[in-house]
């Protein structure tokens, strides 16, 4: 870009792009949370006008956000029917939790070898914050910190391919993981599991942490199937396991 005297000018300010990106990320985060917490349940057809009014935005950022969520598998977009929240069959959910249990177990083993003291301290701080949310019956707050702990363990594994696979699959399971803690006894059991995870991390006991994480995920699956025999709707009969 040239000034009138022909000299070079500084690059144009990037503020508009930053603001736009921030809005985009905020809309994506809000919609993702609506899906996780069941505000937008599986199979629900999305009304763009109502969502725009709720979020205080125009249709352009909403549609951009819906495309992101569609790429994550949380939203289905049909040229003729518009957008709706994705539904996962019972068999798909069963297999997804099975795979996630293996991914988290492997991440736990690697994390015990590679986690740094500051990372461990941050996970412990999240754990105590999670316990405070449990004491206040704050399920959304509890879940956010709970999920951050799992994400931090996956990150501490120092394996980008593993972490990306974990993040991609976990986006589709977050809503079900959130709902699996609605019963008090299941919630308390999950808290106990997290205490055991912290002990295993502190001891750098990879085999123990892997076993805890695997069982933790499989118990969440069992809890979900018990509470919601058809967790995401439209499910075929469950195969024998």
TrEMBL record:
Keyword annotations: DNA-binding, Transcription, Transcription regulation
Pfam families, sorted: FCD, GntR
InterPro entries linked: GntR_C (IPR011711), TF_FadR/GntR_C (IPR008920), Tscrpt_reg_HTH_GntR (IPR000524), WH-like_DNA-bd_sf (IPR036388), WH_DNA-bd_sf (IPR036390)
Signal sequence region: none
Domain HTH gntR-type: 21-88
UniProt superkingdom: Bacteria
SUPFAM superfamilies per the UniProt record, alphabetical: GntR ligand-binding domain-like (SSF48008), Winged helix' DNA-binding domain (SSF46785)
Record bears the keyword Transcription: yes
PROSITE patterns hit by this protein: HTH_GNTR (PS50949)
GO MF entries: DNA binding; DNA-binding transcription factor activity
The name this protein goes by in its record: GntR family transcriptional regulator
Organism of this sequence: Cupriavidus necator (strain ATCC 17699 / DSM 428 / KCTC 22496 / NCIMB 10442 / H16 / Stanier 337) (Ralstonia eutropha)
